[in-house]
Amino acid sequence: MKLIRLPLAALSLVLGFALVTATSYGADETEAMHADLQKIANDVGAGKDVSKAAEAFAKKYAIEDSMAIFKPRNPSAKVSGIGVGKPGDYTPDGIEGVWLSLGKKQMPPGDLKAKKADLLKAAEHTAAMAEVAKYYAPKKDADKKKWDKYNDEAKKASKDLIEGLKSEDPAKVKTAMNKVTGACNDCHSEFRK
Ligand code: HEC
């Protein structure tokens, strides 16, 4: 008996360790999260209903991890941002930073055209996150109302951004970028501790 007990104890340690590591993030988990968001973003871009996939995403990933998608790429962070363009194309290369910096002044039409594909992808990621964030709403009625209001603002602004980019309308793009970051801030100042 004594001889078996030791390997069993060792085995349970290994299993326990596996359980702990399964809930922490590594490059693989981050890659899976980015891929899951990309699928939702593609469907949002194609005008499809994504409610089921968005709900599943919110169940699978905690909000503090999924929101990190908006941060710059950083392989050593717990969850790296999904980034904008190819690494090195934008500084900072996080979605949030890009909306903040490009929203400061109207983009010259040639610049908008050159960045259109990258920004459209980032706008679809933003719209996808607004679909997901709906399912992180707090339970309390009054809080849920506010949450939904800010999130609807984010959803609408990201749709405007997609339209502005598609029609290459610099004024519309600038306004929408600022509305997007305004909605992020509104929700954060109320709900982000
Ligand atoms: C409806 C509410 C809501 C909206 C809209 C929202 N967020 Fe958040 N966000 C949160 C909350 C709540 C947290 C804090 C999560 C936690 O740490 O528990 C958060 C956290 C974050 C974080 C920090 C993640 C980390 O690593 O700790 C980033 C970055 C972020 N949000 C970016 C954005 C951006 C960019 C937008 C707009 C495009 C946005 N959020 C819109 C609710 C929102």
Key attributes of the depicted protein:
binds heme C, 0% strand, mainly alpha, 193 residues, 70% helix
Descriptive overview:
By secondary structure, the protein is an all-alpha fold. It has one domain. The chain is built from eight helices and no strands. Helix 6 (109-133) packs antiparallel against helix 7. The longest helix is centred in the last third of the chain and has 26 residues, at 141-166. The chain is globular and about 45 Å long. Bound molecules: heme C. Heme C binds at residues 63-64, 67-68, 70-71, 96, 126, 133, 147, 150-151, 154, 180, 183-184, 187-188, 191-192.
Fold topology:
Blueprint: H1 2-22, H2 27-45, H3 51-60, H4 63-66, H5 95-102, H6 109-133, H7 141-166, H8 170-191
Bound molecules: heme C.
